[in-house]
Amino acid sequence: MRDRIDDIRARGAELVIVGNGAPNFAAGFRDEFDLDGPLLLDPDLRAYRAAGLRRGRVELLSPRLPRNALRALRSGSRQTGVEGDPWQLGGVFVIRPDGELTYRYISREAGDHPPIDEILAGLDPDAEPIEESSPAPAPRVWLGRGLSRIVDPFIVSSFDRTGFRIHSLTFRPEDLDVDLSSRRCLVTGANSGIGFETALALADLGAGVVLLCRNAQRGEEAAAQIRQQTGNRRISLEIVDLSDLASVRAAAAALAAGPVDVLVHNAGVLPDERIETRDGLELTFATHVVGPHLLTRLLRPSLEKSPDARVIWVSSGGMYTRGLNLEDPNWTQRDYDGVRAYAETKRAQVILAELWAEELRAFPIAVNAMHPGWADTPAVESSLPRFHRITRNILRTPAEGADTVVWLSACPRARESTGRFFFDRKERRTHLLPFTRESDRDRAVLWELCERLCAAPSL
Amino acid sequence: MRTTTKLSGIELADSSGVRRLLGSFWQGRPVVLVFIRHFG
User: What pLDDT digit, counting tens, does each position of A413-424 carry?
Assistant: First the structure.
Protein backbone atom coordinates (compact mmCIF):
# COMPACT_ATOMS: atom_id res chain seq x y z
CA MET A 1 0.00 0.00 0.00
CA ARG A 2 2.94 2.30 0.67
CA ASP A 3 3.61 2.35 -3.09
CA ARG A 4 0.10 3.66 -3.69
CA ILE A 5 -0.01 6.50 -1.16
CA ASP A 6 0.09 8.98 -4.04
CA ASP A 7 -3.00 7.32 -5.54
CA ILE A 8 -4.77 7.71 -2.20
CA ARG A 9 -3.77 11.38 -1.91
CA ALA A 10 -4.71 12.04 -5.53
CA ARG A 11 -8.27 11.23 -4.45
CA GLY A 12 -8.10 13.91 -1.75
CA ALA A 13 -7.66 11.39 1.07
CA GLU A 14 -5.06 10.87 3.76
CA LEU A 15 -3.51 7.59 4.88
CA VAL A 16 -3.65 7.25 8.69
CA ILE A 17 -1.84 4.31 10.26
CA VAL A 18 -2.56 2.88 13.72
CA GLY A 19 -0.17 0.43 15.37
CA ASN A 20 0.02 -1.13 18.82
CA GLY A 21 3.74 -1.18 19.61
CA ALA A 22 5.94 1.27 21.53
CA PRO A 23 6.84 4.77 20.16
CA ASN A 24 10.43 3.82 19.31
CA PHE A 25 9.22 1.00 17.06
CA ALA A 26 6.75 3.38 15.44
CA ALA A 27 9.64 5.69 14.61
CA GLY A 28 11.58 2.78 13.10
CA PHE A 29 8.53 1.75 11.11
CA ARG A 30 8.10 5.30 9.79
CA ASP A 31 11.73 5.47 8.71
CA GLU A 32 11.75 2.00 7.14
CA PHE A 33 8.69 2.64 5.01
CA ASP A 34 9.43 6.32 4.41
CA LEU A 35 6.01 7.40 5.68
CA ASP A 36 5.16 11.06 6.10
CA GLY A 37 1.49 10.77 7.11
CA PRO A 38 -0.05 10.35 10.56
CA LEU A 39 1.16 7.33 12.54
CA LEU A 40 -0.74 6.68 15.77
CA LEU A 41 -0.09 4.40 18.73
CA ASP A 42 -2.75 2.29 20.40
CA PRO A 43 -0.99 0.15 23.03
CA ASP A 44 -4.29 -0.47 24.91
CA LEU A 45 -5.95 -1.70 21.67
CA ARG A 46 -8.95 0.58 22.29
CA ALA A 47 -9.28 1.58 18.66
CA TYR A 48 -8.63 -1.99 17.53
CA ARG A 49 -11.51 -3.16 19.74
CA ALA A 50 -13.79 -0.34 18.63
CA ALA A 51 -13.07 -1.23 15.02
CA GLY A 52 -14.08 -4.84 15.68
CA LEU A 53 -10.74 -6.26 14.63
CA ARG A 54 -9.85 -9.84 15.38
CA ARG A 55 -7.43 -11.12 17.93
CA GLY A 56 -6.46 -14.69 18.75
CA ARG A 57 -4.09 -17.54 18.26
CA VAL A 58 -6.38 -19.59 16.09
CA GLU A 59 -6.22 -16.88 13.40
CA LEU A 60 -2.43 -16.96 13.55
CA LEU A 61 -2.28 -20.71 12.91
CA SER A 62 -3.90 -20.53 9.50
CA PRO A 63 -2.61 -22.97 6.85
CA ARG A 64 -2.47 -19.95 4.52
CA LEU A 65 0.20 -18.29 6.67
CA PRO A 66 3.25 -19.50 4.64
CA ARG A 67 1.59 -18.30 1.40
CA ASN A 68 0.91 -14.90 2.95
CA ALA A 69 4.49 -14.62 4.26
CA LEU A 70 5.88 -15.45 0.81
CA ARG A 71 3.62 -12.86 -0.78
CA ALA A 72 4.84 -10.26 1.73
CA LEU A 73 8.47 -11.09 0.97
CA ARG A 74 7.88 -10.76 -2.77
CA SER A 75 6.33 -7.35 -2.22
CA GLY A 76 9.43 -6.16 -0.37
CA SER A 77 8.38 -6.60 3.28
CA ARG A 78 11.12 -7.93 5.55
CA GLN A 79 9.66 -8.73 8.92
CA THR A 80 12.30 -8.22 11.59
CA GLY A 81 10.21 -9.02 14.66
CA VAL A 82 6.86 -8.46 16.27
CA GLU A 83 6.46 -5.45 18.52
CA GLY A 84 3.19 -4.93 20.32
CA ASP A 85 0.44 -7.48 20.80
CA PRO A 86 1.46 -10.56 18.82
CA TRP A 87 -2.11 -11.91 18.67
CA GLN A 88 -3.75 -8.76 17.30
CA LEU A 89 -4.79 -8.66 13.66
CA GLY A 90 -5.27 -5.61 11.50
CA GLY A 91 -7.74 -4.12 9.08
CA VAL A 92 -8.46 -1.23 6.72
CA PHE A 93 -11.32 1.29 6.75
CA VAL A 94 -12.23 4.05 4.32
CA ILE A 95 -14.15 6.81 6.09
CA ARG A 96 -15.81 9.79 4.41
CA PRO A 97 -15.88 13.27 6.02
CA ASP A 98 -19.53 12.68 7.03
CA GLY A 99 -18.42 9.65 9.04
CA GLU A 100 -19.84 7.09 6.62
CA LEU A 101 -17.82 3.95 6.09
CA THR A 102 -17.35 3.13 2.40
CA TYR A 103 -14.90 0.28 2.77
CA ARG A 104 -14.03 -2.16 5.56
CA TYR A 105 -11.61 -5.03 5.58
CA ILE A 106 -11.08 -7.15 8.72
CA SER A 107 -7.94 -9.30 8.43
CA ARG A 108 -8.73 -12.95 9.03
CA GLU A 109 -5.16 -14.06 9.64
CA ALA A 110 -1.57 -12.82 9.65
CA GLY A 111 -0.57 -11.46 6.25
CA ASP A 112 -4.17 -11.11 5.07
CA HIS A 113 -4.35 -7.71 3.36
CA PRO A 114 -7.04 -6.20 1.11
CA PRO A 115 -6.37 -5.46 -2.58
CA ILE A 116 -5.41 -1.80 -2.97
CA ASP A 117 -7.89 -1.37 -5.83
CA GLU A 118 -10.75 -2.22 -3.46
CA ILE A 119 -9.52 0.45 -1.05
CA LEU A 120 -9.28 3.03 -3.83
CA ALA A 121 -12.80 2.11 -4.97
CA GLY A 122 -13.97 3.04 -1.47
CA LEU A 123 -12.59 6.54 -2.12
CA ASP A 124 -14.68 6.93 -5.25
CA PRO A 125 -17.10 9.87 -4.78
CA ASP A 126 -19.96 7.57 -5.77
CA ALA A 127 -18.99 4.80 -3.34
CA GLU A 128 -22.01 3.65 -1.34
CA PRO A 129 -21.83 3.50 2.49
CA ILE A 130 -21.54 -0.11 3.56
CA GLU A 131 -23.96 -1.97 5.79
CA GLU A 132 -22.45 -2.02 9.28
CA SER A 133 -23.80 -5.19 10.83
CA SER A 134 -22.85 -8.52 9.39
CA PRO A 135 -22.94 -11.97 10.97
CA ALA A 136 -19.76 -13.81 11.77
CA PRO A 137 -18.56 -15.75 8.70
CA ALA A 138 -20.12 -19.18 8.73
CA PRO A 139 -16.83 -21.18 8.47
CA ARG A 140 -15.53 -19.42 11.57
CA VAL A 141 -18.70 -20.22 13.50
CA TRP A 142 -18.65 -23.84 12.33
CA LEU A 143 -15.02 -24.17 13.39
CA GLY A 144 -15.88 -22.66 16.79
CA ARG A 145 -18.81 -25.01 17.30
CA GLY A 146 -16.79 -28.05 16.26
CA LEU A 147 -13.84 -27.22 18.50
CA SER A 148 -16.20 -26.38 21.39
CA ARG A 149 -17.65 -29.89 21.22
CA ILE A 150 -14.11 -31.24 21.62
CA VAL A 151 -12.95 -29.00 24.49
CA ASP A 152 -16.17 -28.46 26.47
CA PRO A 153 -16.28 -31.88 28.18
CA PHE A 154 -12.91 -31.05 29.77
CA ILE A 155 -12.85 -28.30 32.37
CA VAL A 156 -9.22 -27.27 31.83
CA SER A 157 -9.46 -26.75 28.07
CA SER A 158 -12.84 -25.04 28.35
CA PHE A 159 -12.40 -22.73 31.36
CA ASP A 160 -8.92 -21.59 30.31
CA ARG A 161 -7.87 -19.06 27.68
CA THR A 162 -7.92 -21.65 24.90
CA GLY A 163 -11.57 -22.28 25.73
CA PHE A 164 -12.32 -18.57 25.39
CA ARG A 165 -10.51 -18.31 22.06
CA ILE A 166 -12.44 -21.29 20.73
CA HIS A 167 -15.83 -20.18 22.09
CA SER A 168 -15.26 -16.64 20.81
CA LEU A 169 -15.17 -17.95 17.22
CA THR A 170 -18.95 -18.28 17.51
CA PHE A 171 -19.49 -14.77 18.89
CA ARG A 172 -21.44 -12.35 16.71
CA PRO A 173 -19.49 -9.10 16.27
CA GLU A 174 -22.69 -7.05 16.08
CA ASP A 175 -23.85 -8.24 19.52
CA LEU A 176 -21.85 -5.53 21.23
CA ASP A 177 -22.26 -2.92 18.51
CA VAL A 178 -24.60 -1.03 20.80
CA ASP A 179 -24.92 2.47 22.18
CA LEU A 180 -25.45 2.41 25.96
CA SER A 181 -25.42 6.18 26.40
CA SER A 182 -28.98 6.14 27.75
CA ARG A 183 -28.19 3.42 30.30
CA ARG A 184 -27.00 3.57 33.90
CA CYS A 185 -25.09 0.49 35.03
CA LEU A 186 -24.06 -0.48 38.56
CA VAL A 187 -21.14 -2.87 39.05
CA THR A 188 -20.13 -4.20 42.47
CA GLY A 189 -16.48 -4.97 43.15
CA ALA A 190 -15.55 -2.77 40.20
CA ASN A 191 -12.10 -1.58 41.23
CA SER A 192 -10.21 -4.63 39.92
CA GLY A 193 -10.40 -7.85 37.96
CA ILE A 194 -13.63 -8.84 36.24
CA GLY A 195 -15.62 -6.02 37.87
CA PHE A 196 -13.18 -3.41 36.57
CA GLU A 197 -13.14 -4.86 33.07
CA THR A 198 -16.94 -5.00 33.05
CA ALA A 199 -17.18 -1.36 34.10
CA LEU A 200 -14.52 -0.39 31.54
CA ALA A 201 -16.31 -2.18 28.69
CA LEU A 202 -19.72 -0.74 29.60
CA ALA A 203 -18.18 2.74 29.83
CA ASP A 204 -16.56 2.16 26.45
CA LEU A 205 -20.02 1.47 25.03
CA GLY A 206 -21.16 4.85 26.36
CA ALA A 207 -23.00 3.81 29.54
CA GLY A 208 -23.05 5.82 32.72
CA VAL A 209 -21.35 3.50 35.18
CA VAL A 210 -21.40 3.53 38.97
CA LEU A 211 -18.55 1.59 40.56
CA LEU A 212 -19.66 0.05 43.85
CA CYS A 213 -16.51 -0.48 45.90
CA ARG A 214 -15.49 -0.97 49.52
CA ASN A 215 -12.31 1.06 49.35
CA ALA A 216 -12.63 4.74 48.41
CA GLN A 217 -9.06 5.20 47.21
CA ARG A 218 -9.00 2.09 45.02
CA GLY A 219 -12.46 2.96 43.73
CA GLU A 220 -11.42 6.51 42.83
CA GLU A 221 -8.31 5.23 41.07
CA ALA A 222 -10.38 2.77 39.04
CA ALA A 223 -12.93 5.46 38.12
CA ALA A 224 -10.15 7.83 37.01
CA GLN A 225 -8.57 5.08 34.90
CA ILE A 226 -11.87 4.27 33.20
CA ARG A 227 -12.54 7.97 32.49
CA GLN A 228 -9.04 8.31 31.04
CA GLN A 229 -9.21 5.16 28.91
CA THR A 230 -12.70 5.66 27.52
CA GLY A 231 -13.15 9.42 27.53
CA ASN A 232 -16.50 8.72 29.26
CA ARG A 233 -17.07 11.27 32.04
CA ARG A 234 -20.20 9.57 33.41
CA ILE A 235 -18.26 7.33 35.78
CA SER A 236 -18.97 7.65 39.49
CA LEU A 237 -18.21 5.83 42.70
CA GLU A 238 -20.48 4.63 45.49
CA ILE A 239 -18.89 3.18 48.60
CA VAL A 240 -20.54 -0.02 49.78
CA ASP A 241 -19.54 -3.12 51.68
CA LEU A 242 -21.81 -5.93 50.44
CA SER A 243 -21.14 -7.90 53.63
CA ASP A 244 -22.59 -5.10 55.77
CA LEU A 245 -26.36 -4.80 55.45
CA ALA A 246 -26.42 -1.24 56.84
CA SER A 247 -23.87 -0.24 54.20
CA VAL A 248 -25.98 -1.89 51.49
CA ARG A 249 -29.07 0.00 52.67
CA ALA A 250 -27.21 3.32 52.69
CA ALA A 251 -25.76 2.76 49.20
CA ALA A 252 -29.12 1.63 47.80
CA ALA A 253 -30.80 4.77 49.15
CA ALA A 254 -28.25 6.90 47.30
CA LEU A 255 -28.38 4.81 44.10
CA ALA A 256 -32.17 4.71 43.94
CA ALA A 257 -32.16 8.48 43.33
CA GLY A 258 -31.24 7.73 39.71
CA PRO A 259 -32.36 5.13 37.17
CA VAL A 260 -30.93 1.64 37.28
CA ASP A 261 -30.78 -0.30 34.03
CA VAL A 262 -28.06 -2.83 34.79
CA LEU A 263 -27.02 -4.30 38.14
CA VAL A 264 -23.97 -6.56 38.16
CA HIS A 265 -23.39 -8.59 41.32
CA ASN A 266 -19.68 -9.18 40.99
CA ALA A 267 -18.11 -8.43 44.40
CA GLY A 268 -16.52 -11.50 45.92
CA VAL A 269 -14.33 -12.70 48.79
CA LEU A 270 -12.48 -15.90 49.61
CA PRO A 271 -11.18 -15.69 53.20
CA ASP A 272 -8.83 -18.29 54.73
CA GLU A 273 -10.72 -18.39 58.01
CA ARG A 274 -14.25 -17.82 59.22
CA ILE A 275 -14.99 -14.12 59.65
CA GLU A 276 -18.27 -12.96 61.13
CA THR A 277 -19.79 -9.72 59.92
CA ARG A 278 -21.39 -7.22 62.24
CA ASP A 279 -24.75 -8.66 61.20
CA GLY A 280 -23.63 -12.02 62.61
CA LEU A 281 -23.21 -13.65 59.19
CA GLU A 282 -20.25 -15.55 57.78
CA LEU A 283 -18.39 -13.15 55.47
CA THR A 284 -18.66 -15.16 52.22
CA PHE A 285 -22.36 -15.88 52.74
CA ALA A 286 -23.01 -12.22 53.54
CA THR A 287 -21.00 -10.87 50.58
CA HIS A 288 -22.16 -13.30 47.88
CA VAL A 289 -25.72 -14.04 48.94
CA VAL A 290 -27.41 -11.83 51.54
CA GLY A 291 -25.89 -8.48 50.53
CA PRO A 292 -26.66 -8.85 46.78
CA HIS A 293 -30.15 -10.14 47.58
CA LEU A 294 -30.81 -7.07 49.72
CA LEU A 295 -29.36 -4.72 47.10
CA THR A 296 -31.59 -6.27 44.41
CA ARG A 297 -34.63 -5.94 46.67
CA LEU A 298 -33.90 -2.29 47.50
CA LEU A 299 -33.23 -1.36 43.87
CA ARG A 300 -36.23 -3.29 42.56
CA PRO A 301 -38.41 -0.15 42.16
CA SER A 302 -35.68 1.49 40.04
CA LEU A 303 -35.17 -1.67 37.96
CA GLU A 304 -38.92 -1.95 37.36
CA LYS A 305 -38.92 1.54 35.84
CA SER A 306 -36.31 0.64 33.23
CA PRO A 307 -37.62 -0.40 29.81
CA ASP A 308 -34.91 -3.06 29.59
CA ALA A 309 -33.29 -3.90 32.91
CA ARG A 310 -30.65 -6.57 33.45
CA VAL A 311 -29.41 -8.16 36.67
CA ILE A 312 -26.31 -10.33 36.35
CA TRP A 313 -24.93 -12.59 39.06
CA VAL A 314 -21.24 -13.32 38.53
CA SER A 315 -20.95 -16.86 39.87
CA SER A 316 -18.06 -19.28 39.47
CA GLY A 317 -17.37 -22.59 37.77
CA GLY A 318 -16.48 -23.73 41.30
CA MET A 319 -20.20 -23.92 42.05
CA TYR A 320 -20.37 -27.10 39.94
CA THR A 321 -18.60 -28.93 42.77
CA ARG A 322 -21.12 -28.08 45.51
CA GLY A 323 -24.82 -28.16 46.20
CA LEU A 324 -26.78 -25.67 48.23
CA ASN A 325 -26.05 -25.83 51.95
CA LEU A 326 -28.97 -24.76 54.08
CA GLU A 327 -28.01 -26.70 57.20
CA ASP A 328 -25.16 -24.42 58.13
CA PRO A 329 -24.76 -21.49 55.74
CA ASN A 330 -23.04 -19.49 58.48
CA TRP A 331 -20.43 -22.16 59.21
CA THR A 332 -21.12 -22.30 62.95
CA GLN A 333 -21.27 -26.11 63.06
CA ARG A 334 -18.43 -27.06 60.66
CA ASP A 335 -14.69 -26.57 60.46
CA TYR A 336 -14.32 -23.63 58.12
CA ASP A 337 -13.24 -24.30 54.55
CA GLY A 338 -12.99 -21.07 52.52
CA VAL A 339 -12.99 -22.74 49.10
CA ARG A 340 -16.06 -24.79 50.01
CA ALA A 341 -17.82 -21.72 51.43
CA TYR A 342 -17.05 -19.93 48.17
CA ALA A 343 -18.44 -22.77 46.02
CA GLU A 344 -21.59 -23.14 48.15
CA THR A 345 -22.40 -19.44 47.96
CA LYS A 346 -21.69 -19.36 44.23
CA ARG A 347 -24.21 -22.20 43.88
CA ALA A 348 -26.67 -20.12 45.92
CA GLN A 349 -26.14 -17.18 43.53
CA VAL A 350 -27.15 -19.30 40.53
CA ILE A 351 -30.32 -20.37 42.34
CA LEU A 352 -31.09 -16.81 43.46
CA ALA A 353 -30.77 -15.63 39.85
CA GLU A 354 -33.40 -18.19 38.86
CA LEU A 355 -35.66 -17.21 41.78
CA TRP A 356 -35.32 -13.49 41.07
CA ALA A 357 -36.10 -14.12 37.40
CA GLU A 358 -39.39 -15.73 38.48
CA GLU A 359 -40.10 -12.96 40.97
CA LEU A 360 -39.63 -10.26 38.31
CA ARG A 361 -41.13 -12.10 35.34
CA ALA A 362 -43.96 -9.55 35.04
CA PHE A 363 -41.43 -6.78 34.37
CA PRO A 364 -38.95 -6.19 31.54
CA ILE A 365 -36.10 -7.32 33.77
CA ALA A 366 -33.76 -10.13 32.72
CA VAL A 367 -31.98 -11.85 35.60
CA ASN A 368 -29.20 -14.25 34.70
CA ALA A 369 -26.10 -15.80 36.22
CA MET A 370 -22.81 -16.61 34.53
CA HIS A 371 -19.35 -17.89 35.30
CA PRO A 372 -16.24 -16.30 33.83
CA GLY A 373 -14.00 -19.36 33.50
CA TRP A 374 -10.50 -19.22 34.96
CA ALA A 375 -9.36 -15.59 34.77
CA ASP A 376 -6.11 -14.09 35.96
CA THR A 377 -7.45 -11.56 38.46
CA PRO A 378 -5.84 -10.02 41.57
CA ALA A 379 -8.45 -11.88 43.66
CA VAL A 380 -7.43 -15.27 42.26
CA GLU A 381 -3.75 -14.46 42.75
CA SER A 382 -4.19 -13.42 46.39
CA SER A 383 -6.86 -15.91 47.46
CA LEU A 384 -5.71 -18.99 45.54
CA PRO A 385 -1.92 -18.51 45.19
CA ARG A 386 -1.19 -22.19 44.53
CA PHE A 387 -3.88 -22.48 41.87
CA HIS A 388 -2.63 -19.24 40.33
CA ARG A 389 0.97 -20.44 40.31
CA ILE A 390 0.06 -23.67 38.54
CA THR A 391 -2.39 -22.23 36.02
CA ARG A 392 -1.16 -18.68 35.39
CA ASN A 393 0.06 -19.48 31.89
CA ILE A 394 -3.33 -20.73 30.79
CA LEU A 395 -5.60 -18.27 32.59
CA ARG A 396 -7.86 -15.94 30.64
CA THR A 397 -7.38 -12.21 30.84
CA PRO A 398 -9.82 -10.39 33.16
CA ALA A 399 -11.41 -8.84 30.05
CA GLU A 400 -12.03 -12.29 28.61
CA GLY A 401 -13.54 -13.36 31.92
CA ALA A 402 -15.78 -10.27 31.88
CA ASP A 403 -16.93 -10.76 28.30
CA THR A 404 -20.12 -12.66 29.12
CA VAL A 405 -21.04 -10.16 31.86
CA VAL A 406 -20.76 -7.36 29.31
CA TRP A 407 -22.71 -9.39 26.75
CA LEU A 408 -25.53 -10.10 29.22
CA SER A 409 -25.56 -6.42 30.22
CA ALA A 410 -25.51 -4.90 26.76
CA CYS A 411 -26.55 -7.24 23.95
CA PRO A 412 -30.18 -6.76 22.82
CA ARG A 413 -30.41 -10.50 22.08
CA ALA A 414 -29.42 -11.38 25.67
CA ARG A 415 -32.65 -9.73 26.84
CA GLU A 416 -34.54 -12.75 25.54
CA SER A 417 -33.19 -14.97 28.33
CA THR A 418 -33.99 -14.78 32.01
CA GLY A 419 -33.31 -17.21 34.84
CA ARG A 420 -30.52 -18.84 32.83
CA PHE A 421 -26.86 -19.63 33.42
CA PHE A 422 -24.23 -18.58 30.88
CA PHE A 423 -20.58 -19.18 30.08
CA ASP A 424 -18.88 -17.58 27.08
CA ARG A 425 -22.16 -16.11 25.79
CA LYS A 426 -23.86 -19.51 25.72
CA GLU A 427 -26.43 -21.02 28.05
CA ARG A 428 -24.99 -23.86 30.09
CA ARG A 429 -26.21 -26.54 32.44
CA THR A 430 -26.27 -25.60 36.13
CA HIS A 431 -25.43 -29.09 37.37
CA LEU A 432 -22.75 -31.53 36.23
CA LEU A 433 -22.83 -33.78 39.31
CA PRO A 434 -26.06 -35.39 40.57
CA PHE A 435 -25.36 -34.81 44.28
CA THR A 436 -25.31 -31.02 43.75
CA ARG A 437 -29.01 -30.85 42.82
CA GLU A 438 -31.41 -29.08 45.17
CA SER A 439 -35.13 -29.62 45.66
CA ASP A 440 -37.88 -27.05 45.14
CA ARG A 441 -38.24 -26.95 48.89
CA ASP A 442 -34.50 -26.13 49.26
CA ARG A 443 -34.94 -23.26 46.83
CA ALA A 444 -37.92 -21.93 48.75
CA VAL A 445 -35.98 -22.18 52.02
CA LEU A 446 -33.06 -20.22 50.52
CA TRP A 447 -35.42 -17.45 49.41
CA GLU A 448 -37.13 -17.30 52.80
CA LEU A 449 -33.77 -17.26 54.57
CA CYS A 450 -32.56 -14.32 52.47
CA GLU A 451 -35.82 -12.46 52.96
CA ARG A 452 -35.70 -13.00 56.72
CA LEU A 453 -32.08 -11.88 57.01
CA CYS A 454 -32.70 -8.80 54.88
CA ALA A 455 -35.74 -7.85 56.91
CA ALA A 456 -33.81 -7.91 60.18
CA PRO A 457 -32.66 -4.48 61.33
CA SER A 458 -28.93 -3.95 61.01
CA LEU A 459 -26.94 -4.03 64.21
CA MET B 1 -23.32 2.38 17.51
CA ARG B 2 -21.56 2.83 14.15
CA THR B 3 -17.92 1.82 13.96
CA THR B 4 -16.90 5.32 12.92
CA THR B 5 -18.85 6.86 15.82
CA LYS B 6 -17.02 4.62 18.25
CA LEU B 7 -13.66 5.38 16.64
CA SER B 8 -14.15 9.12 16.35
CA GLY B 9 -14.06 9.74 20.13
CA ILE B 10 -10.86 7.80 20.75
CA GLU B 11 -7.73 9.79 21.46
CA LEU B 12 -4.36 8.30 20.52
CA ALA B 13 -0.81 9.58 20.68
CA ASP B 14 1.04 10.06 17.42
CA SER B 15 4.66 9.00 16.96
CA SER B 16 5.87 12.29 18.47
CA GLY B 17 3.68 11.90 21.56
CA VAL B 18 0.97 14.43 20.64
CA ARG B 19 -2.57 13.27 21.54
CA ARG B 20 -4.85 13.24 18.48
CA LEU B 21 -8.59 12.61 18.29
CA LEU B 22 -9.16 9.90 15.68
CA GLY B 23 -12.32 11.60 14.39
CA SER B 24 -10.34 14.75 13.58
CA PHE B 25 -8.59 12.94 10.74
CA TRP B 26 -11.75 12.58 8.65
CA GLN B 27 -13.06 16.08 9.25
CA GLY B 28 -13.02 17.74 5.84
CA ARG B 29 -11.46 14.87 3.86
CA PRO B 30 -11.75 11.10 3.53
CA VAL B 31 -9.19 8.86 5.16
CA VAL B 32 -7.84 5.40 4.65
CA LEU B 33 -7.46 4.19 8.23
CA VAL B 34 -5.06 1.26 8.38
CA PHE B 35 -4.65 -0.84 11.51
CA ILE B 36 -1.39 -2.72 11.20
CA ARG B 37 -0.73 -5.99 12.98
CA HIS B 38 2.62 -4.93 14.35
CA PHE B 39 5.57 -2.60 13.82
CA GLY B 40 7.99 -5.11 12.43
Answer: 898 899 999 999
